[in-house]
Amino acid sequence: MGSRVLGEGVATGVPEGRRLERRRTPWRERLFQLSLGASLAVGVVFLGSLLTYVVVEAWPRLDFRILTDFPDIIDPTQAGAQSAITGTIWVIAFTALYCLPVGFLTAIHLEEYADRHRWYNRAIEINIQNLAAVPSIVYGILGLGIISRGLGFGQTVLTASLTLSLLVLPTVIIAAREAIRAVPQSIREASLALGATQWQTIWRQVLPAAVPGMATGAILALSRAIGEAAPLLLLGGLTFITFNPTGLDSAYTVLPIQIFNWISQSRAEFAPLAAAAIVILLVILLAMNSLAIWLRNRYSRRW
Amino acid sequence: MSSEIPPTAQTPTTPGAAGEPPSASPGDSGNGTLTPQVSFRDAPPLAGPVFEVGSLSVFYGAHEAVRDVNMTIGDRQITAMIGPSGCGKSTMIRCFNRMNDLIPTARVTGKIRYHDQDLYGRDVDPIEVRRRIGMVFQKPNPFPKSIYDNIAYGPRVGGFKGNLDDLVEETLTHAALWEEVKDKLKTSALALSGGQQQRLCIARTIAVEPEVILMDEPCSALDPIATAKIEDLMEHLAQEFTIVVVTHNMQQAARVSHRTAFFGSDVDDKGERHGRLVEYDETARIFSNPSDPRTEDYISGRFG
Ligand SMILES: Nc1ncnc2c1ncn2[C@@H]1O[C@H](COP(=O)(O)OP(=O)(O)OP(=O)(O)O)[C@@H](O)[C@H]1O
Ligand SMILES: [Mg+2]
């Protein structure tokens, strides 16, 4: 059939529909491109003005004392956010320590071992997806009722990090599962066909290939936890803390809550302080997200 | 490596003893050109069968994909499996190293004897089975690691205690790949061409010194030159290994195999398709004088 059409073309000259000149872009396509550009602009402008506003607000207090001084309710000019910064680091470090091993192992189990056709595995899967959508304040209530009061851990770093672990665990699991699932089945088959055990296959082939994706997801999940204020409001983060945490049983505060605290003060001098703390929080978040992007680009594999 | 020939093998009678098929031309050893003049390989008698398949059926869930297959696969021969798409060739070949175990819905009934053992016996370890019976897949699937690590992977997971460097060199030489890659052993296997990747996959398989190599359409993603190289390699390897190869390429089956199994499919009264072994014989016979009209139709291209 192809040759017949070609023959026709030769016989009758190039038909109208087959000219090579560039046609005018149809208006639908233009409209589409325009709306793409517009959406991008909205995002960039919004982020840009937010950053500018915060930095301008924070400028008077964007100095080293914000890092070295402790909150001071009497004299805002003497106040810093050190206890909140160290509190954030403590809480997030222990959150990572609890939720990453559990999350990764759960993901490996669900992807590599669990039989997807069993109803209980499907139930677990749906459950995890729903848990990821539960509002964080609900985790705060859970933490207050069960971890803080029920287990008697009180308003401590331990309670906060356990609660945040539960909060981000579904996200960590889902991201890790995606990364594991992205490893082609042909790699597993190749390994098994060489007489490797399932464990060897996972440990030597699947995980090395999936780890960058798992790490990226984990960092993004943790950076969500860093910005959380709601559950910690219920868990004692709001108490006025002028010292760094000394252990898991220590009282604590974290950056989002310190910001909340300062903003709700009536005196105007606290506003730049809050803005400066926001800048610090944003810097931490941007650093973590950059690390995630770098990891993804550095170790992304082609098959 | 050549000293590792399994002791079970009773060496088949010397090649040529089984009677030359009429169309054989001794010079042509399957060089990839699609000449109609094909030389068939001699099929020595089935001395010391490696596999004996008895009333084998494979189910996916309730669907019987392969029904009642009986065949015997000879030691150090190349056995080709041909047939239309969907008739269960891959399903069948994956039974030989228990790869179907990995598909939760798959179920095998009937018997496969591997030498004197029941391959699906209760106390048989599928891991051990796959160490003896290697597999090469349709799409080259090297690990995203260096060439060296690809070869060394099987021996490493198998607990190889010896000089890996020597083993890698020996294996690559054996697979006729050494000259091409000896200067870049530490570079990624993914940087090789498709044909080289597939030969690397074959090399990786023989590095664990299996007895049998199963190949499921090993050349279907390759160009004719790369295909010819793999066919040469198969013939070379058939001196030591038993090879079962699924192929859609008639010339390939005719060129390289000693015996050919033709699979077709039946439709039952419920409208379900079941793969069946239609005819299994010496390759020369299958291609020149098949006894089943379906085989003849398929080979002469009258049938999908
Ligand atoms: N994992 C699976 N689950 C369910 N059914 C399957 C599965 N794999 C194969 N089948 C079915 O089994 C039958 C045989 O498939 P198989 O892949 O063995 O055919 P084939 O002869 O290798 O085909 P091709 O030449 O296209 O590779 C088909 O009907 C197919 O749909
Ligand atoms: Mg197939």
Automatic annotation (TrEMBL), chain A:
Protein name from the UniProt record: Phosphate transport system permease protein PstA
Listed transmembrane segments: 31-56, 89-110, 131-151, 157-176, 270-295
Domain ABC transmembrane type-1, first and last residues per copy: 85-292
Lineage: Bacteria, Bacillati, Actinomycetota, Actinomycetes, Kitasatosporales
Job description of the protein: Part of the binding-protein-dependent transport system for phosphate; probably responsible for the translocation of the substrate across the membrane.
CDD domains assigned: TM_PBP2
Organism annotation: Streptomyces djakartensis
Entry keyword set: Cell membrane, Membrane, Transmembrane, Transmembrane helix, Transport
Compartmental location: Cell membrane
Automatic annotation (TrEMBL), chain B:
Matches recorded under PANTHER family: ABC TRANSPORTER I FAMILY MEMBER 17
Species whose genome carries this gene: Streptomyces djakartensis
Region named Disordered: 1-41
PROSITE patterns: ABC_TRANSPORTER_1 (PS00211), ABC_TRANSPORTER_2 (PS50893)
Protein name, per record: Phosphate import ATP-binding protein PstB
Alphabetized GO MF terms: ATP binding
KW Nucleotide-binding (keyword) present: yes
Alphabetical UniProt keywords: ATP-binding, Nucleotide-binding, Translocase, Transport
Keyword match Isomerase: no
Transmembrane stretches, start-end: none
Domain ABC transporter: 51-290
Low complexity: bias regions: 1-28
Signal peptide: none
